[in-house]
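[step 3/7] fold_predict: job queued, chain A
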Amino acid sequence: MTVRNISLFALFMLGAVVSFAAIRLPAQYGHHMVIQQNTKAFFRGWATPGKTVTMQASWAACKQSTRAAADGSWSLWVPTPAADGKAHSIRFSDGQELTLMNIVLGEVWLCAGQSNMEMPMKGFKNQPVEGSNMEILKSSYPSIRLFTVKRNSTIAPQTDINGQWQEADPVTVREFSATAWYFGKLIHQLVDVPVGLVVSAWGGSSVEAWMSKDMLSGFPEVKIPENEQAIIEKNRTPTTLYNAMVQPLTGFPVRGIIWYQG
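[step 4/7] structure written:
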């Protein structure tokens, strides 16, 4: 290997180390998110192992701090005040900084279930949502934030999900759950605070797929898969949707949950 190649390799490895060490959070903690008001909010993520992790929320007078474990994981709690209509930020650091922007305090709801929850405002093929065209056109509500957990099915419990927070407007609402949208809009109108809606749904799924291994242990007739080859139907295999689409949300503060099976 030439000196030039060695130098390039060293730079590549240094970049890989920096990338690994960069502070990171699960997808539900992101720009434009809604944080549950009037509670003690839980945050978690990954950082450089052994480093001190600090968290400074713009509404809080004091920083929170902890030390990243050997695997890089960390968690912190921060009190949240009542919704104030302001756009907030949260700065995290382990030596490298990550700042989440345009965060609001309000009411957060998890919306889960089958196709009746998953069905978007634009409808399914040959299955329109009545009155949705006009509703979509009038859906610019910057204080309503939307997050859809992308479909996934796994044998082992996961620590992260795929998805991102978006402000409600005709483009984002068109693709969002109709049931969750109408529910969230009503909540927003009734309580007059920002509303965050997290949708985790998969049409045609069995309820056993949404249950944890511990929960199903009391039902010996339910066969819990032990390897990926045992997943025959991704949305109907016991524990698999819980592992991939619910477990990663554990600890994320919400006001409540709505479920639509059917």
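[step 5/7] annotate
The longest strand covers residues 97-113.
The helical segments are 3-21, 115-118, 132-137, 170-174, 178-191, 213-216, 240-245.
exit 0
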